[in-house]
Design a protein that fits this description.
single chain; 417 residues; mainly alpha; 2 domains; two-stranded antiparallel ribbon; 19 helices; globular
Length: 417
Amino acid sequence: MLAVGALAVPIYALTGSSVATYNATLILTLALSALTMFLLGRELSGSAWAGVIAGASFAFTTANYDSLARIQVVSSQWTPLTLFFLVRTLRSRLCPPGPRLLLLRGLFCGPAARGVSGVSRAHPSTAGATVPLGSARGGRGFGRFAAPARQPDPTPAAQSRRVRKIGGADGHARHYLAADPGNWIHARLFGASGLGYDARYFPGLIPVVLALVGTLVMLRRRRDLPESSRYVIPIAWLGRVALALALGDRVTTPWGDVPGPLAALRPWVPGLAETRVPARFVMFARVAMSALAAMGAAALLRALRARPRLAVSTGLVLALAVHLEHLSTPIDTWRVPVGDAVPPVYRWLAEQPEVAVVEFPPFPVRRRREETLWLHLSALHWKRIANGYASFYPTHYDLFVNTLLVSPARSPSRCCA
């Protein structure tokens, strides 16, 4: 997550706290998402207030609030920024070479920044992993983790196939009508509990209504629209395609599950075979909806241009209402020890020479996310650790951890040489 890390480094340099760094980087990421969508919405609609409404509907939404622990998913500011540079580049055919070069640089930097905001890679599994273990006195020992006789297919495609059964079926309408159970306005009607984490994509009612108005405006091809508004049409089609892909491999209907569009396209479109969570395509649909909402808001504000004060008040109310539609309390958070609550052993580790640390017992498979606690605590002593959390695990890691948990007294003789 290099692009996210670039935002976090100055904050960590000032605070020295991993918790403060994460929280501040998350807030900055939401602000940047709102800013870049504002730029795109204003460029397409010709209205600053419409851009503000588009930015609020894209950034401050249930889909982002339900993914607060996945900052790489929330970090979607680069997509509207890329589209903004693309529209500007297409409009700048007659501009001097200097500004045009700057636009092209921005056009290619946007996707690059998005790509390094969250990259999942499967590393080939090896016959065994040698891990130095730190003793209680700070010395060093070595243990060799034994591997199973039959190694798994190490390719990313094979790893994706293994986990797609967990994260691939998102074609259920309840995900797109699901607001947070603590939503101030929509909890009674749309509040949904019992869903998995990162599974609520409720867009709000106001952005949907404004997007429908924007669609009607584009269909009427009004002459008072700015020249750049014509680029809303391909963005809208991008959103439709993304929404179809977000349905995943299976779509749930009253008559049972049917194959989704993604299942038909996987063999033919390069890259789709590696898709682990198809619902993430919803982000592109949210960009398109926000762009159309900007067009609808701009049309409404143009109808009020004879009364400037009313137009400004309407724009302000809509921007606040779009934000308040998703206001939810309390939002799920994860508490980690800081300050005096940190166990003294981690401060002791910080004073020891270079060692490697294994946190024991490791968490079982169903609670593997709890391993991130050790990552947080490792930032207090900065020693190498054998524990961690990732999307892909080699099979011999599962074998070793499960053996330790089932029979810790016998595990050294069974798994280590």
